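How a chain folds remains the central question behind the approach discussed here. The record that follows shows the chain in one-letter code together with its fold in token form:
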Amino acid sequence: MERKSVERRTFLKGGAAAVGLLGGASSELSTGGDQALADAPASGLPQQIQAAIERFRAAIPPNFDHDYVEKAVIPFFLTSIYGDQRPMLPMIGVDFSKENALPYDLWGLITRDWRPTPEEGVTVFLQGLEKRGPNNLRKRIYFSGVTPDLYKPMYSPKVVAFLDKLMDQRFAGRPFMRHYLDYYFDLYWDLHLGVTGDDIPFEVRQIGESFNTVLAYRNPLLPITYQNYMIVRKHLDFLKSWIDERLDDIENGKAKNSEKTMAWYWLKNAGDGRHFEKKDVVFECFHNFVALSQWGNSIFGIMSRLSEDGGDPAVRASFQKTMSGNFDNANGAPYTPLELFVMELFRVISPNGGSISSIHDARTSSFYGTSPQASIGVPLERHSYINTPHTTTSMDPVHWKDPSAFDPARYLGVPTSAQITEDKCRQIGLATCPFDITNFEVKDGRKANITNSGFGTVFGVVDGKSLPVCDYAGFAPFGFGYRRCPGEQLTINVFEDFLRKVWRDKILFRRLNAPNPGEVPIGPNAVILDDLGFTRSA
């Protein structure tokens, strides 16, 4: 039996299925890696295992595409994600790698071959530190397009225009999140490529929404997940070609105001392209479907807490207090009062629950000896990952005296990334900083460089002024150290504009109490009942 010709029913019939389902193997083993196991009669299996296999087989709808079953459904059930301990320092060790750290059933959303294909482009979010160039260079180039000094002149006008349209009076009293998703991709592509409105093809809009729908529902056995997964695959080549053409427009000066796009900075600061090729820019432009999809989850979390009925009184009181003062004046502190308020919102909402790392079998370096699968020559490819938690770390009483309280001022008493120097590392008991502190000067005309803290956290220095982040393990919504999300400050800036809009226009959020609110996929693992709306009196 040739491997490529193995049918879904064959896979689900034999003893190899039992080994895979119970032992964490991949479909590679189950589709011919061990012929003896594949030929084992089902009747020889314990009754309990046979029953489990039958239930699994019955759960797969018969109309599902064969490749989808082999490359998405089966890996979903053969993937293990383990929980890591809560960090004491804001770091993740380099042994927990970002290299291909994506649950294997999702690779078909971003590659034609259902597997990592770095020769066609790669994102820094799925790239090991050792492959990013010296001193995390790839991350620094990416970050050059989202440094906070760019936000007000380059990106804020786009965000404000989006918010004005989103919360126009004519949309008051309607379900908000479906309405948000209808407009979201105008902002997404405007920020990345400077394209909006009718210039965004139907296929590009559809693939974006389908991508988010798959992430939200997640279970590959659901018809809605399958349908949207296959839509993504249908349009993937079109999307990549369309992005590539728009990048050509930016490079050739055909695009208007191209300096107001993230892609312009990535192209300008990529240097010789060795560590950030054009194909990688293409990849980043659509892989951000994952990162920015969390904006929907965040906006829903903020609305829910500010809601007039069923909201969080502490959050509402803090918002009133913040906005009644000089909320945009830092007054010598690292952060403005509004920035502190948004940071605390993200700590408690935590739209991204953890940092996923790929792991490998380490028995060869321990007293347990070699891998038993390797010793008998079984080509067992496991898909195992470990999750370093964000939410529970942010709520850990080791880091905060009262972690359950909503207290934006808490960040004024912990270090910023600019303060984690060699002296600070020695002060806390380390012989030296875990990461050398280095600088990358941008090449886009600004007097700016991208530096890092002793924990590896990347941040900007513009015109000699540091623009740091909170480099403390208790503030975990955006990750840790060299792995920290480079879009953190952009995201905080966007939600500052959202809250300015809410305050200025006297916008209130309320439950609509609709009899049958619709389900809306708003972010990874987040499908909500769309029963929140707004009113405004300005």
